[in-house]
Give the backbone structure.
Amino acid sequence: MSEALRGTRLGATSLENDRDVEFAPRMTVTYNCPAGHVINMPFAVEAEVPVEWECHCGEMALLVDAVKPEPKPVKPVRTHWDMLLERRTIADLEELLEERLALLEADDDAGLRSA
């Protein structure tokens, strides 16, 4: 028994053979990258094939004989200022600024007296 298990690994390795296994029918799909790379990807026959595939160079490769899809609308980037204005008005912000400046001035005056 110990001779039969020598050299085997634990984990994903199966000890069964592929003799009676039928693989899913496949098709090879070709993508062309704008950088000139050609990508051949195997897909199951019943799988939905994407029109674009990311190439190893980072560009988006397009399916051969396919029309480039419409670009998705890009949402504008929300800055910290935009999010702040969603919560407070300019008048509220000016009031807060005046309060904080008054506190700072009071701290400065107290610091000068104690020194």
